[in-house]
Specification:
It is built from twelve helices and twelve strands. By secondary structure, it is an alpha/beta fold. β1, α5 (about 80-95) and β2 (about 95-100) form a beta-alpha-beta unit.
Length: about 350
Amino acid sequence: MANRKITIRDVAALVGVHHSTVSRALNPKTKDRISPEMVRKVDKAAEKLGYFPNIAAATLKQNRSFALGVLIPDLMNPVFPPIIRGIQDTAEAKGYTVFTANTDDDEKKEQDALNIMSGRSIDGLIIATAWRNDAIVDKCIERELPFVLVNRTVDREGVNAVIVDEEFGIRATLDHLISLGHKRIAHIAGPQHSSTGYERAKAFEDYLTLKNMESGLVEHMEKFTVEEGHRAIKRLLARDNQFTAVVAASDLTALGCIDAMQELGLLCPENISVIGNNDIIFLTRMNPALTTVSIPKYDMGAQAARILLGLVNGEPRDPLILRMQPRLMIRNSTSRAGAF
């Protein structure tokens, strides 16, 4: 037997069942139709014989690759690993393999990744790289490739996306700061060609206007990075140093703000309270621990995968924009205005 390729019939013979039973037991989509005890027996026999299902044959037979693609703008950004984990756990439970590509928010890299994945006949794509007007989204529509947006969305209608209720998050941050007596609040805004940067900045300005408070203390960045946050708050402080709190467009941006403040002899929160967005890992180990808007990253990835799998399997549904609710995590980087 070692001199030839092990087949599903060999596994069936070892277990003493029909090969169709083995097929169902080894397929994540159908193994729940078999008793758990039989699934364990089949798995043990397959492992003993060194049998692996022939994915290429299944692809040809069913005209599917059982593979999904994921485009990520920056794998070094702590926001995205939990999203990827949610996607992968959900997809693998249904028998799908996930291919992930880092694009550095570069359009050519995104296009190259899409072409490579298309060449591998992926069944669908999850896009975390979308700009408000996005060429990759246009290509997916043109190629009739099922796709779902996650974390960011586009301005056009008729797409599926899993994003954050940015207005809810920004209002929560401003309510918190206002309750602490802050009257002049600044915003370090993300790129306006991204939905996250645009929606957070718009929610900030709209809510302060609603509250009859000054809404023009906004400084824009090109990227959601520590370096951009560092530069942006220095520009802001150079033109106005009377604000007592800053709402940063991301946690990385907030970290850059705090670094720049320390260089200028300003302390957080003694001189300026700082709030981030996303709730990336290890924020509680900082000094001060960062107050931030926590977004459900893992659940966003899992929901995006569920929607995509439904599209791939032809489930009828109208396009869905799922806005998931964040929550404010109050820590030590915010305090009462003038408390020190």
